[in-house]
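Priority: medium. Attachment 1 of 2:
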């Protein structure tokens, strides 16, 4: 057991692959009760330790069985992401973990009450933060069961500025893919299969399907990047 905890310490602190291997795997960590040991460290007031713990949980979450244990930390990590320093290493580590936890549909329902806050971080964060939040939102948007929650989120109108032609391609393409995924959930043969009356006027639904967004899509048809043009054609 001493060797286990020594290897676990190396795993958390980011030791070399050779140090952390030698029969030591994500499955072994779970089976020997190591995940709660790592999980408890996300409460540590030391930002460096907290970041390392989040990164370790992120690595562990690649194993689907581990996600069934890690899911108990989703609420806390979400709260920490929203209350912590914007664009910080700790926030990014938390976002990466949450993104991994949304790769499959299994635990996505646990994010329903946080969707509006994720859009807030998207709008206020820097480029790297925007990309990471969009990765998470894209995972959610691929699940039709999450469409109503996403489209019903209260989102600031400045969201539409991310559809401007000058926006960085890695952000703009993800923004367009988000629109495309949601479009696939709510429209069929050009008609809405989800009634607009269920959405509040300040919701994402009315931003995406309003006149201003339509104008931005028309402008993007003339974008210099072929990938952007193709996405817009699919959406419109």
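Attachment 2 of 2:
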């Amino acid at each position: 057991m001493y060797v286990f905890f020594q290897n676990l310490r190396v795993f958390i602190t980011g030791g070399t692959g050779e140090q952390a291997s030698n029969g030591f795997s994500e499955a072994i960590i779970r089976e020997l009760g190591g995940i709660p040991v790592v999980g408890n460290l996300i409460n540590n007031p030391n930002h460096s330790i907290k970041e390392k713990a989040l990164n370790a949980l992120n690595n562990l979450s690649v194993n689907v069985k581990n996600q069934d244990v890690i899911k108990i930390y989703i609420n806390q990590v979400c709260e920490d992401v929203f209350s912590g320093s914007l664009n910080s290493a700790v926030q990014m580590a938390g976002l990466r973990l949450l993104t991994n936890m949304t790769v499959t549909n299994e635990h996505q329902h646990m994010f329903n009450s946080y969707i509006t806050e994720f859009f807030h971080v998207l709008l206020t964060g820097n480029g790297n933060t925007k990309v990471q939040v969009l990765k998470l939102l894209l995972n959610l948007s691929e699940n039709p069961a999450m469409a109503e929650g996403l489209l019903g989120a209260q989102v600031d109108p400045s969201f539409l500025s991310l559809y401007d032609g000058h926006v960085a391609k890695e952000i703009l393409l993800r923004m367009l893919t988000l629109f495309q995924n949601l479009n696939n959930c709510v429209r069929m043969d050009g008609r809405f299969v989800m009634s607009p009356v269920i959405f509040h006027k300040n919701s994402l639904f009315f931003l995406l399907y309003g006149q201003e967004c339509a104008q931005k899509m028309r402008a993007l048809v003339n974008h210099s990047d072929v990938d952007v043009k193709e996405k817009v054609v699919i959406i419109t």
